[in-house]
Specification:
The two termini are 18 Å apart. The chain has 9 helices and 15 strands. The strands form 3 sheets. Strands 14-13-12-11-9-10-15 form a 7-stranded mixed beta sheet, sandwiched between helices. It has a 6-stranded mixed beta sheet with strand order 3-5-4-6-7-8, with helices on both faces. By secondary structure, the chain is α/β, with parallel strands linked by helices.
């Protein structure tokens, strides 16, 4: 199964919901950049790079990524691993752009044979069978992979980006900002991992604006900015005056039409400072910390690590709300979002998880 793919270096107060009235600070987490440093030792496979040196007694972790790290999903995993290496908790190397199942399988077998890591992190969505076959063949190597499937005993744990809570908060903001009562969403494809984020966004819209209509277009790709932009243009032509950019390319359309937009996975305010309201953020560091603790404690077992990406556990958040947009954000709307954020982080509210395709959604592109 595929996913909507695509750290906490330290936790810090990032998001402030500010309006005319003073509001409390929202705790968010910094998502670091995706670049890595090049190691001095020979790489196990082409394009591999190593992190800073670490003590010999810390776990050796290898990242094996299907996409280039510029793609935010794998970039978020890499950023968390790099921050753990910077903190001296792990020794880290990685390889990216393993775009086919065959490439992933060959790389994993090569990494295990030549580098002998304690743990391999990566994404299995386009290579589920290959990753699971390698894990079965090497039961002494621990695996933590993004996957839409279940964990595989004894040594393959799974995780994913569970962003339904920040999606709900973004939806609340979108519902309060639309003047046409039409909001456009452009997303990857109607699979459970994407649907739960889009449906969470729609639920949030409904809380602040029950009369609003949300149109959803799937581009049938994880990375096709041109098609995503075209889908956004179609949504705008249909009356949408607020856009959720679940895929790259939508913010460009929003900026050209001077419309509010919401980013995905990393803080995308820099793409259009006057128009990006906030972004959904995925913080993989709690997941990494859990795996490292299990390994160092000799207690690693195959498990589903999904809960460590929930907002209540610090695994997701929204970026700082942009109070410098070209349009006003009402203070009463910010108060509502702040109150809901507090309910989520306290555990008093959990966004319903709905993994069905949104009603009325359409698929465009190849």
């Amino acid at each position: 199964m595929m996913s909507s793919r695509r750290s906490r270096t330290s936790s810090r107060s990032l998001a402030r919901l500010l309006g005319a009235a003073s509001l409390a600070t929202v705790l968010a987490f910094a998502v670091t950049g995706c670049g890595g440093t090049t190691g001095n030792e020979p790489a196990a496979v082409p394009n591999a790079s190593g992190g800073p040196s670490a003590a010999a007694d810390v776990p050796f972790v290898f990242g094996a990524f299907a996409t280039p790290l510029e793609e935010p999903w794998d970039g978020a995993v890499h950023a968390a691993l790099q921050s753990a290496a910077d903190d001296g908790l792990i020794k880290y190397q990685h390889v990216d752009n393993l775009s086919t199942a065959d490439e992933m399988e060959r790389a994993l077998r090569d990494i295990i044979a030549s580098e002998k890591p304690d743990v391999i992190f990566g994404d299995a969505f386009a290579a589920e069978d290959a990753v699971r076959a390698v894990a079965k063949d090497f039961p002494d190597t621990k695996f933590a992979f993004g996957s839409g499937g279940a964990e595989q005993a004894p040594n393959l744990s799974v995780f994913d980006n569970w962003l339904q809570d920040p999606a709900y908060l973004a939806g609340m903001l979108a519902g309060g900002l639309t003047t046409s009562n039409t909001i456009g969403v452009v997303a990857a494809m109607p699979i459970p991992e994407v649907n739960r984020i889009v449906n969470g966004f729609i639920e949030g819209v409904t809380e602040t604006n029950p009369s609003a209509t949300v149109t959803v277009s799937f581009i049938n790709s994880f990375f096709d900015p041109a098609t995503a932009k075209q889908a956004a243009e179609a949504a705008i032509a249909g009356g949408a005056d607020v856009l959720f950019a679940e895929r790259d390319g939508v913010i460009a359309a929003a900026s050209e039409h001077k419309l509010p937009a919401f980013g995905m996975m990393v803080d995308q305010q820099g793409q259009a400072p006057d128009y990006v309201v906030t972004s959904l953020l995925w913080n993989m560091r709690p997941t990494v910390d859990q795996v490292v603790a299990e390994v160092t404690g000799g207690k690693f077992t195959a498990s589903n690590l999904g809960k460590y990406s929930y907002m209540v556990n610090g695994g997701s958040s929204i970026a700082p709300i942009n109070t410098g947009t070209a349009f006003p954000i009402p203070s009463d709307l910010l108060k509502k979002v702040q109150a809901k954020h507090d309910e989520i982080t306290s555990g008093a509210f959990a966004t319903p998880i709905n993994e069905e395709a949104p009603a009325g959604s359409t698929t465009v592109g190849k």
